[in-house]
Specification:
This protein is an alpha+beta fold. 30% of the residues lie in helices and 19% in strands. The structure holds heme C.
Length: 193
């Protein structure tokens, strides 16, 4: 226990000293071995940098998503979306239905937006930095017949809009067809679960 506390203190100090520019002080050997505390330190260290970076070019989702409903108690690694810590926010239209995390017959209302921050873990550098803000906007099947009515998108950590191939995203998300193509955060971090 004492060792664990000491470890947390070391991590906190190290992350503080590293400033918002650089979270390399938290050594990441394996993204699946990160403790809740380590994830907290990394998130705190990169939180501001993510939000300001995504909003840099004036994207409306990037500028607003932090005021939306959180969907998880903390960022977590899902395995898909590569070596990334993920944290999803839901806009007003999406939040009520999304937060039920239902598994059957889900139909998200048009205008729903999910915005998912990501922290990219470089196993080579054993460090973390902001990854893209992934987005899903429910536009309806008239506009997006091949993607389940969703428009997939992304904003780079520098605020630039990413070119996103709809089929690349949807081919994986369609695996959750009964959940209206939503993957949901991993169970242990779902809000209210
Ligand atoms: C290999 C599978 C896979 C691919 C490809 C993929 N995703 Fe996801 N996505 C997931 C999983 C798994 C989750 C849920 C895990 C989590 O958020 O913690 C998820 C969650 C999301 C969410 C949060 C809403 C939800 O589903 O719960 C958004 C937004 C999102 N992805 C956008 C994208 C975009 C944009 C692309 C394409 C650039 C993409 N995804 C490609 C697997 C994938």
């Amino acid at each position: 226990m004492i060792r664990k506390l000491a470890m947390a203190a070391v991590l906190t100090v190290a992350a503080g000293a590293a400033s918002a520019q650089d979270c390399t002080a938290v050594t990441v050997e394996d993204q699946f071995d990160l403790t809740e505390e380590q994830i907290g330190v990394l998130y705190e260290c990169l939180s501001e940098k993510m939000a300001t970076g995504y909003a840099k070019e004036g994207d409306a989702i990037a500028a607003n998503y932090r005021d939306w409903a959180p969907t998880a108690t903390r960022a977590a690694v899902a395995g898909a979306h590569q070596n990334r810590l993920l944290n999803t926010f839901a806009n007003d239209i999406a939040a009520e239905q999304y937060l039920k995390f239902e598994e059957e017959g889900v139909v998200m209302p048009i205008g729903s937006i999910l915005a998912k921050e990501s922290i990219t873990i470089s196993l080579k550098k054993k460090a973390a930095r902001p990854g893209p803000l992934f987005t899903m906007i429910k536009v309806g099947t008239d506009l997006a017949p091949d993607a389940g009515g969703w428009l997939y998108g992304g904003i780079q950590p520098n605020g630039k809009v990413m070119k996103v191939k709809q089929s690349f995203c949807h081919d994986c998300h369609v695996g959750w067809e009964a959940q209206d193509s939503l993957g949901y955060p991993v169970h242990e971090v779902r809000l209210g679960n």
